[in-house]
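User: Structure with SN-glycerol-3-phosphate, tokens only please.
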Amino acid sequence: MQLFLDTASVTEIKTMWEIGILDGVTTNPTLVSKEGKTFDALLREITALGIPSVSAEVVATDTEGMLREGRRLREVHSSIYVKIPMTSAGLKATKILASEGTRVNMTLVFSPNQALLAAKVGATYVSPFIGRLDDQGQDGMELVREIVTIYRNYKVPTKVLVASVRHPMHVVDAAKIGADIATMPFAVMEKLVQHPLTDLGLARFLKDWEKVPKG
Ligand code: G3P
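Assistant:
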């Protein structure tokens, strides 16, 4: 499973990219608003690092506006995936952008039928928001299971990008189901690395090493 960071922070992206565990980045208007830089400046900085997949979201709500923004965003860098919301206007825009060869990440997906439609119009990624479903008292991971099953039934090439990930168990469960990608905040990706027994074990090895005669 590919691991993406859900952030617009260049510092966070650089940290994980340099460790070598990062496959891509997803941004959204909320994340971009926290950085105090223009959208284009941020995208140029992120893509300059060499990240192979960077999702950049349109803010227009009509098809024409989405097409205009999507066509402009894809020109910023070859690694840009255009993020389009799951609405009728978004489906229409996705169909046109996909036919032009633009890779679309269809976002704000909360039902299996929405995922079926995203695949039908040629989205490259579909983004079910699992944490936000959990927040509503609905099992977000069940949605991932349903989408993966449906896509397998029909050999759909659209990749399932699990979004709104809140903790490491979301990542484990997404991987067990066979989702293609999980995108997560920096703090969650940090937790994938850490385990208290690793720290304890390392401390003990280093302590015991002091007893080994040197020379
Ligand atoms: O980027 C889309 C999604 O991952 C947002 O997550 O935590 O705001 O529900 P969250």
